[in-house]
Amino acid sequence: MTRVILHGACGRMGHEVRALIENNDALELVASVDAMGGEGVYTDINDCNVEADVIIDFSSAAATDALLAYAVDKNIPVIIATTGHSAAQIEAIHAASEKVAVFHSANMSLGVYLLVALAKQTAAMMPDADIEIIETHHNRKVDAPSGTALMIANALKTVREKAEFVFGRQGASKRQAGEIGIHAVRRGNSVGTHEVIVSTDNQSLTLKHEAHSRALFAEGAISAALFMDGKGAGLYDMNSVVGG
């Protein structure tokens, strides 16, 4: 049985993950951690002195540094499912992965990874087409553009090496060849929608993924937890889980 520490246990995603763990015979929740506290909840990861096989993190980017230090110190594989990390934090994630197993993904959905694969294939087959990425999330999301939109854009850049990112558009200049536009919409309670629009003068192709429930991301985290149990040091993502 895979023993799980749930970090960010009191948030929306934390509640979703907890429910799935409690209904999965292959998993055991051995500790909950959240700065908000609560009955049976550690407020500081460093106070958590339990035996565990993996940490699932759905807290915030602000907690990542302490979490990585704890995972390295305890030699526990960690799944980082938060977004909004700084460049320095991304470097810290890579550095930690040299000492312990780290799963880092801007999006825990298998469907999003399929979207990325299709977008890359389309961009390669239509090398002169314009590409725009539009992401929509709820009005409480703090980072923009989303980590998933940036993940898509960076994946596209592997087949469009000279591409330049343009975040939103304003002013009186025309679109330049090779740009990848990235746009963020914040409204209501939208769980998450990502669109990649590929257009020439004569045709357009739209690839779209829409999350209907936050349970989608919790399901991905559960799959990652089972995959990460017993893994050695290294950097993993959803492609690792699906064998991509």
Describe this structure in words.
This protein is α/β, with parallel strands linked by helices. Helix content is 32%, strand content 26%. It has 2 domains: 2-108 and 214-242, NAD(P)-binding Rossmann-like Domain (Rossmann fold); 110-210, Dihydrodipicolinate Reductase, domain 2 (2-Layer Sandwich). The model has no long low-confidence stretch (mean pLDDT 94).
How many DSSP E strands? 12
The succession of helices and strands, N to C, reads: EHEEEHEHEHEHEEEEHEH
Mean pLDDT, all residues:
94
Helical content stands at 25-40%
Which structural class fits the helix and strand makeup? alpha/beta
Query: Unreliable segments (pLDDT under 50, ≥5 consecutive)?
Result: none
From the alpha carbons, calculate the radius of gyration and give it in angstroms: 19 Å
Write the CATH homologous superfamily of the largest domain: NAD(P)-binding Rossmann-like Domain
CATH class of the largest domain: Alpha Beta
Highlighted features:
244 residues; alpha/beta; Rossmann fold; Dihydrodipicolinate Reductase, domain 2; five-stranded mixed beta sheet; 12 strands
List the helices and strands and how they pair.
Layout: E1 2-7, H1 12-22, E2 27-33, E3 41-42, E4 54-57, H2 64-74, E5 78-80, H3 87-96, E6 101-104, H4 110-125, E7 130-137, H5 147-157, E8 164-167, E9 179-186, E10 193-199, E11 204-210, H6 215-228, E12 234-236, H7 238-242
Parallel strand pairs: 1-2, 1-4, 2-3, 4-5, 5-6, 6-12, 7-9, 8-9
Antiparallel strand pairs: 7-10, 10-11
Helix pairs in contact: 1-6, 2-3, 4-5
How is this structure best summarized?
By secondary structure, this protein is α/β, with parallel strands linked by helices. It contains seven helices and twelve strands.
